[in-house]
Specification:
Helices cover 33% and strands 16% of the residues. It is an alpha/beta fold.
Amino acid sequence: MSRPPEVAASKPAVPATQERPRVLAVILGQTRAHELTWGHFKKNVLDVTGADLAVCVSEQYWRAKEREMDPFTRTALYRWFYPELEDWALAFDQACNCTDCWRPVLKVKWQLFGGILDPTDEHIGSAGILLFYRWFLLQNLYDSGAIIKYDYFMHTAPPLSRSDFYYEAPHPAFSPTQDPRHMWVPEGEDYDGLTDRHMVASRLHIHSVLGLMEPICASAAGFVTEMNVSAAWNLEIYIKYTLEKHGIWKYVKRFPRVMYAVRRDEDPTRWSQGEVIAGAPGLVKYPEEFNATRRNVGNRAWMHEMY
C-alpha cells in the first residue's frame, strides 16, 4: 500500500496552538468483556484524553443475533468491520492482492503467523490475525480521512486499545507541547521485543507502526531471507525489529502500567485463559499486568508530567 502524497508530505510538528491534540482511540479485533471494562475505559481513557473512539473489529462478533450492540461499538465514531474467518489466509490474500503469493513467509519461525491454516508450517497463537488487522486499520484510516483529522492514535492489539483492558487509573493525558516523535507504550509484557497490546503514536509514525505487512506483500522470498537473522520470531520481536529498521526505535518511551487484561469465562480467546485473582473484576489474563498496575496505582507520584 502506498502512502498518499498529502500524508507523506505532512510532518506533524508540535501543534502551533495550545489546543488539546486530537486523539483517536481504536479497539482492534474484538470488543470483549465490555460488561467489566466499559465504565472504566470511558472514565479513565476517553474522558481523560478527550479521544474519539473507533472500533476495527470482527463483523460476526457484534452482529450475532443473541447479542445487543456493546457500548464500545455504540459509542464509536468510526466502525470498521471484517468477517470472522476460520482461515486468515483469505485476509492475507486480500492485503497482498494475490492468492498465496505470501505463503512462503510461513517458513519463518515461530509465532508470527498464527491464525493461518497450513499443513506443514502452521504457527500457534493469533499474531497473523493481528498483523492483518493492523493492515486493515491503516487502510481505513486513510480511506476515512482519519489519518489527517487526528494528531495521535492510541492503539494496541492490539491493540490497538484493547476493550478487555481494565483501567484502574487514568491513562496519561496528551499535552499540546509533547514531542510527536515519541511513541508511548506501557511498561512490561515485551517478550524479547515490544509489547503489542497498547501504543500511542502520532501521525508522523503511525504508518510505520501499522504497516507491518508491507514487506510481506512486497516480496515473500525477500522477507524470509531478511527474517533468517533469527530462528524465533513473535509479534513483539517483529514490532521492535520494524521500529529499529525505520530508525524510530529511539523514540519509544514507556509509561507505568495502569491497566490489565480481563475476561469472562464465556469470552473467546486464542491465548491466555486467565486466572482468578482477588480484587479483579474478572479472570486476569496476565498476572504480571495486574501486579504492575496495582503497584503503580498505589504510587501516584508518576502521574505528573508523563509526556
